[in-house]
């Protein structure tokens, strides 16, 4: 007997496709159009082909910002992924304390990005900030507005404070999904805590960690609001990342053509690196 397929459900998905086309595809095609034109005003536009792409790829600002961005994203992943796993392992699995821990861990994720930057801007001030004033009273010359290393560390710690909770909550949900029979077998074999983590918990967390790594890489690679509010990209260009360089080019200088080409290169870099992460982790999972 032939099975009758009902395709009416696709009509329910159609509004989603239209919304995605309106909010993503159409702006993307507009950016592509800008990237191959030299725009003087609404009535004066000239086709320049790939000239803007060549100019952007040879721009030293792109090279400096790209290196700075990769270093920052690498530091974020190296800190937040192990820290999130550790926090998830230390959280209680059930009871009231479990609910309380989940609420506390979710609080930083609810704070808007610009508010996070403002909080740390005040918190790190050397004159009135709790962190900055305390460090200076201890004899540590701390000033994120004037010292490059202080600015870097402050932006990194701010990101760790804001987003480690996401990794911890993802890992916690992955740990709770592991069947109890694995732990029972480990207790029968008298496996150590490290052996349980190495052979049971970590393999079962691979898919969750893939999601966490992808989300944190893409978000850290596109970071803009927090460092802009905290340091304004300074001191100098020490905390000027790719998104800020793009904004300065598009809004500050109003170079729409180079900015459009820059944004497409930016998008392709994120897409390529995310694909490499996904391919590497899925290949390791299959092995």
UniProtKB/TrEMBL annotation:
Tell me the CDD domains matching this sequence.
TM_PBP2
The family database entries (PROSITE patterns) matched by this protein are listed as: ABC_TM1
Q: Where are the transmembrane segments?
A: 70-89, 101-123, 151-172, 208-225, 259-278
Q: What Gene Ontology cellular component terms go with this record?
A: plasma membrane
Q: Which UniProt keywords apply?
A: Membrane, Transmembrane, Transmembrane helix, Transport
Instruction: Please list the residue ranges annotated as the ABC transmembrane type-1 domain.
Output: 66-277
**Principal location listed in the UniProt entry:** membrane
Which GO BP terms sit in this record? Answer: transmembrane transport
Q: What's its membrane topology?
A: Multi-pass membrane protein
The answer to whether keyword Nucleotide-binding applies is: no
Where found, per UniProt? Cell membrane
Q: Does the keyword Amino-acid biosynthesis apply?
A: no
Query: Pfam families annotated for this entry?
Result: BPD_transp_1
Q: Which family does it belong to?
A: Belongs to the binding-protein-dependent transport system permease family.
Identify this protein by name. Sugar ABC transporter permease
Q: Which organism is it from?
A: Pseudomonas brassicae
């Amino acid at each position: 007997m032939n099975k009758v397929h009902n395709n009416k459900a696709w009509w329910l998905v159609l509004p989603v496709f239209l919304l995605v086309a309106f909010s993503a595809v159409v702006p993307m095609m507009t950016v592509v159009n800008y990237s191959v034109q030299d725009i003087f005003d609404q009535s004066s536009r000239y086709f320049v082909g790939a000239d803007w792409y060549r100019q952007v790829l040879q721009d030293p600002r792109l090279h400096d910002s790209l290196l700075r961005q990769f270093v920052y994203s690498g530091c974020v992943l190296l800190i937040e992924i192990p820290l999130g796993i550790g926090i998830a392992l230390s959280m209680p699995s059930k009871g009231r304390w479990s609910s309380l821990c989940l609420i506390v861990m979710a609080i930083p994720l609810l704070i808007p990005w610009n508010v996070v930057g403002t909080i740390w801007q005040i918190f790190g001030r050397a004159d009135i900030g709790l962190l900055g004033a305390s460090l200076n009273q201890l004899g540590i010359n701390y000033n994120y507005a004037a010292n490059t290393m202080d600015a870097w560390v402050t932006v990194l710690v701010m990101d760790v404070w804001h987003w480690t909770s996401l990794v911890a909550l993802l890992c916690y949900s992955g740990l709770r999904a592991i069947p109890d029979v694995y732990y029972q077998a480990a207790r029968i074999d008298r496996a150590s805590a490290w052996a349980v983590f190495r052979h049971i918990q970590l393999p079962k967390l691979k898919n969750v960690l893939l999601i966490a790594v992808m989300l944190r890489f893409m978000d850290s690679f596109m970071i803009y609001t927090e460092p802009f509010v905290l340091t304004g990209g300074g001191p100098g260009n020490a905390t000027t990342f790719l998104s800020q360089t793009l904004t300065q080019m598009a809004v500050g200088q109003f170079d729409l053509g180079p900015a459009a080409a820059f944004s497409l290169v930016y998008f392709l870099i994120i897409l390529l690196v995310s694909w490499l992460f996904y391919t590497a982790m899925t290949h390791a999972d299959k092995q």
